[in-house]
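Two proteins were folded this term; both appear here.
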Amino acid sequence: MFEGLLRSKPHHDRPKETGSARPETIADTEFERQFNDIEYVDVGGVDAKIIDVAPENLSDETPILLAPGYLSKPKEYREAMRNLYLKGRRVISVTHPRYGGFTELSPEQEKLIGKCPSEEIRKALTLLAVLNKKDITDVDVFAHSGGAVNSAIAALLDPEKVRNIAFCSPAGMVVEKDRKEIPRGMRKHIIGSRTISGGMLAQAIKNPVRAFEEGRGLTEADIHTVLEKLHENGIGLLVVSRADDPVFPADKTAEFLKGMGTEKNQIIDGFLSIAGGHGHLEEYVDLIEPYFAQLERNKEKKRVTASL
């Protein structure tokens, strides 16, 4: 189901350094070359656009999958991807097609994920198709906004592929009584972010019906049960919210997370509340990238303790 055609396989050959060029300049030049080298993956008869950037010297062999938010494209996350690249991490992101795509689940998969927005299932299957066609067997996920829902579904469908997930300003973590406020927050975010809103509106115009269904799905999404199952599968879970986020504010996310697990068996491994609004994912990088390493150390400690 998740198979697709990968075209224009990335080439991460590096230009030789010269004595006069600074390493940072060379790194930026190479990042720009890779960032603009768009690939295409067939996901059920349509193309998903892929950006894949990889530094020469990796600080961690596990790539990062950046799951974009509602109506967003990787180019809107350029600075976040650049910051991760300069930290030695390979980063992959995708522009979800506005038409078509994988939609079918097996009966077992439908039972596993339960009630989830259909458009988010489609995006989850696209994420898995990209990882499969690029032969990636293990990722850390950097999920923004609506990307939290579809990346969580993808991880549940194929948990062996995911080590940890950082949910940034996440959708799907709002208690039912507060979901009616989400459309108002989305409008406020769009009006206040001209560059982002231009990209979002352009995407919406390509397929208004799908845009509406995606937006409605995010107002209804609740990934409480999904998070519990991801925790059972040993996937590290970090939630980062922002106090002034008009769409998914930190206090509302904290209310959703309250009571998830007991003191001895917390489902969420970490919750951080920081200042700021809904966008600017690059500001999360310095917090989250080291946290992935900490989550892996915590897992190893548990494995050692369990074996004693």
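Next, the second protein.
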Amino acid sequence: MRRARGAFSAAADPFRVDAERLVDIDEATLGALFEVRADNPLVGLGGRVALLRRLGAALDGGRPGALYDRLTARSHTVSVTAILRELLDMLGPIWLTGSTLDGIALGDAWRHPQAGGDGPARGWVPFHKLSQWMTYSMLEPFEWAGATLTDRDALTGLPEYRNGGLLLDTGVIVWRDPADATVAWDVGSELVVEWRALTVSLIDELAPRVRTLLATPDLPLACILEGGTWAAGRALAAEKPLCGARATR
């Protein structure tokens, strides 16, 4: 086993992460940690370094591990939505999508003319794919640390290219104009926002069918995503010319 280097730690404990180390991380350090070489490249290394630096700045001298301490300070029963809310509040500034409302960075939320809601939320479709993905990834570690989680079904499906691609590749979602499939669309375009919103809605329709088919009524949505739609979407993308690029981004 490779010995822990503690590159993200400002203390004697190598298994912790501190903001002051993140804000100073550079490509050479991160590249060495990921064993990046000419024969083992890592796409977007510079962008990943910039993201870690923004994370360090957003932590304002703290540690990402303090999230657990805050959420369990009064009780070890924690709502999954509380984890997501903390992540959205903490990580909002690091996602440079350009979506803002009253000067507040919204992250993965986009305009669509038919989006519902009342007041200032009208017209916005909130996805928060990466923040929800991170929340799903934290569920087991929270439980390992002794927390009891509630509201597991409050999160949505992830509107990303493997899940959305699966629905296109299987004909569940069909192009209104087939020529649109040959165009590179901006992530904030009406077409992409609508595609992602359909992905979330249709995964909600798919999940109970999978549970019924497998006779597992309590199967978490996270399992359906990881072991089902995500894996199947990636496999199909590798077989289809249009989707091959999605699988390697």
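Residues 116 and 122 are 5 Å apart (CA to CA). Residues 243-249 have pLDDT under 50 and may be disordered. These notes refer to the second protein only.
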